[in-house]
Specification:
- This protein is α/β, with parallel strands linked by helices and about 375 residues long.
- It folds into two domains: about 20-245, Type I PLP-dependent aspartate aminotransferase-like (Major domain) (Aspartate Aminotransferase, domain 2, 3-Layer(aba) Sandwich), CATH 3.40.640.10; about 250-375, Aspartate Aminotransferase, domain 1.
- The chain contains eleven helices and 13 strands.
- The strands form three sheets. A seven-stranded mixed β-sheet has the order 1-9-8-5-4-2-3, sandwiched between helices. A four-stranded antiparallel β-sheet has the order 10-11-13-12.
- Helix 1 runs antiparallel to helix 8, helix 3 crosses helix 4 and helix 8 (about 240-270) crosses helix 11.
- The longest helix is centred in the middle third of the chain and has 32 residues, at about 240-270.
- It is globular, with a radius of gyration of 21 Å.
Length: about 375
């Protein structure tokens, strides 16, 4: 039975993946087969994903962060290199760079889409810059025409973080297939899920061969103890892959539901003072990761939502402020260098959009927001 948005205690949860009996049966079949490690289900999942996104080559990974690390390693990124990463993204984008020994260099984002700002990337590129990592954030796409031109002009590698990008296209082409490598996540809050899991695409055979060696202990195939190169264990299980194959068959249903809920949010939130709902970037479609909105001051509104048993989240905390990356901050680093990332964190709010949600739930959420924005404590002046 599919999970509902409203839990037994009355809360509207931020995440509720659409999983049910079909996924359970698929996993059970794998358990019964006795082949639970990476095997035939995983191979079939790769082929189905490749066909869906339009990738020539691809491999699986344990999760989105390790997918990024695997892609970076396959591109030869390592100590002494710098990778341009947008300041507004999940910390895994930057920690994947750190895992390789390279340095993430943070770039401000666009004020209306919160995708990487290529003008700021121009200012931050140095002779040590090896790659740029556009992150397709919140269910829409970066301007990959601008990213590709920037990279081509400087001889940089492009690694797309498409963790939130399943089903998202830019000018008709699926995200994750523009760059040298593209990386997806199948975490529980993604459009399709395997619980944990990732996927790495690439466009040339030499990168594909490196991906295969790196993810499988430095060998092309399991079952041999001769390892031509140093590699690691970046594999998944057939139990995950079996679940993923069912989820992929559900994808059109999930996307349609998300878009219906997003339209309900747009209608319900329109006309409320100080609330601006974000949507698709120019040239891209929109598969909502959350309903993402800007308000004057997110914190009091989120407290109001919590008091009504509705989970919400802020935008991502700017990477230049993350304690984990304090060593990268120079003496002159200032929030003024990242005005859009900071404004997004202070005024951005993420509302749930998942298949367990109903239009009535959206109306309930919008009603709380309207009451807050029109009350004396709600500024409502955005």
């Amino acid at each position: 039975m599919d999970r509902a948005a409203v839990s037994g205690d009355g809360w509207i949860r931020q995440v509720s993946p659409l999983i049910g009996e079909e996924e359970a049966r698929a996993v059970h079949r794998v358990v019964e087969s006795g082949w639970i490690t990476e095997g035939p289900e995983s191979a079939a999942f790769v082929e189905e994903l490749k066909e869906y996104v339009g990738a020539r080559f691809a491999v699986l990974a344990p999760n989105g962060t390790l997918a990024l690390a695997l892609g970076l390693l396959a591109l030869g990124v390592g100590p002494g290199d710098e990778v341009l990463v947008p300041d507004t993204t999940f910390v895994g984008s930057a920690s994947a760079v750190a895992l390789t020994g390279a340095k993430p260099v943070f770039v401000d984002v666009e004020p209306t889409t919160f995708q990487i700002n290529m003008a700021d990337a121009e200012r931050r590129a140095t002779s040590a810059t090896k790659a740029v990592m556009p992150v397709h954030l919140y269910g829409t796409a970066c301007d990959m025409t601008a990213v590709s031109a920037f990279a081509d002009e400087r001889g940089l590698r492009v690694i797309e973080d498409a963790a939130q990008g399943m089903g998202v296209r830019f000018r008709g082409q699926h995200v994750g297939t523009f760059g040298d490598v593209g990386c997806f996540s199948f975490f529980a809050d993604k459009t399709i899920t395997t619980g944990e899991g990732g996927f790495v695409t690439c466009r040339d055979e030499s990168t594909y061969e490196r991906l295969r060696l790196l993810r499988n202990q430095g060998r092309m195939n399991s079952g041999t103890f001769i390892h031509p190169s140093v590699g690691f264990n970046f594999r998944i299980t057939d139990m995950q892959a079996a679940m993923g194959r069912v989820q992929l068959r559900r994808l059109s249903q999930i996307v349609e539901r998300k878009q219906t809920l997003y339209a309900a949010y747009r209608d319900a939130l329109s006309g409320i003072r100080g609330v601006r709902v974000l949507g698709a970037a120019e040239g891209a479609n929109h598969v909502p990761f959350r309903c993402v909105a800007l308000v004057d001051d997110a914190a009091p509104l989120m407290e109001r939502l919590t008091s009504h048993q509705i989970e919400s989240r802020t935008f991502f905390y700017p990477l230049h402020l993350q304690p984990a990356f304090a060593s990268l901050r120079g003496p002159d680093t200032s929030d003024r260098d990242f005005p859009n990332a900071v404004a997004g964190y202070e005024g951005g709010i993420c509302l749930p959009v998942h298949s367990g949600l109903t239009v009535d739930d959206v109306a309930r959420i919008a009603g709380v927001i309207r009451d807050h924005q029109e009350s004396p404590q709600g500024k409502g002046t955005l």
